Fold this sequence. Notes:
Low-confidence stretches: none
CATH superfamily: NAD(P)-binding Rossmann-like Domain
Number of domains: 1
Order of helices and strands: EHEHEHEHEHEHHHEHH
Strand content: 5-15%
Amino acid sequence: MATALVTGASAGLGTDFARILARQKYDLILVARNEERLTTLATQLAAEHGVKTYIISLDLSVSGSAETLVKDLKSKGLSVDVLINNAGYGMHGPVVDADVKTLVGMLQLNIITLTELTRLLLPNMVARKNGRIMNVASVAAFQPGPWMAGYYASKAYVLSFSEALATELKGTGVTITALCPGPTKTEFFDRAKMASSKMKEVLFFAESMACAETGVNAMMQGKSLVVDGVLNRILVQSYRILPRSFVRFLAGRLNS
């Protein structure tokens, strides 16, 4: 039976990815900080779907955590057939006022750990000529985002890295997919402290499970990029023709 590793599996999209893959009979390696939530989810999925589940409680925003995770996998004799780099968080507010430790932790998690984990697990997939990787980016990746500058920039990196790697991996049997959700009903906005953001007032929020299904389906089909939701796809295409100054203005108003 194939094995899937999901980061950020204790809530939101991560939990939904795990549920979908369990239904598809993947054994699961669930990674997040919250051990209690992971244990509850792992126990439930093992009972409902008859799959093996492993939990690893780890803070992936810490430097070197990807290497620690891979060493743990090796010590347990686990190999990874599907990798979903879902863990990430955002920050709301001007950069000048940002807590430096939180900002650096976000970039470490959203960019560095994602890149390291992909690089460390990729060689075995290529050697087996089989593997699937999904990196969770965002529609934010297509534009600059005043008041969430670091987050938007980090997702632009994830998108660019994933699309480039998808081309490098052609013919290897390994595919990489960038999933770009729009606003989704998860804990993201609460953690980013966006209770006062206009975005919550004017935009449609997608259901987390539906977004996760879109991502997993695209990954299994080997697509390099999928934007979740018709309105989000239209919005992303509009960025190609709108003046950059207007795109910045619009994102800034929504984030303010």
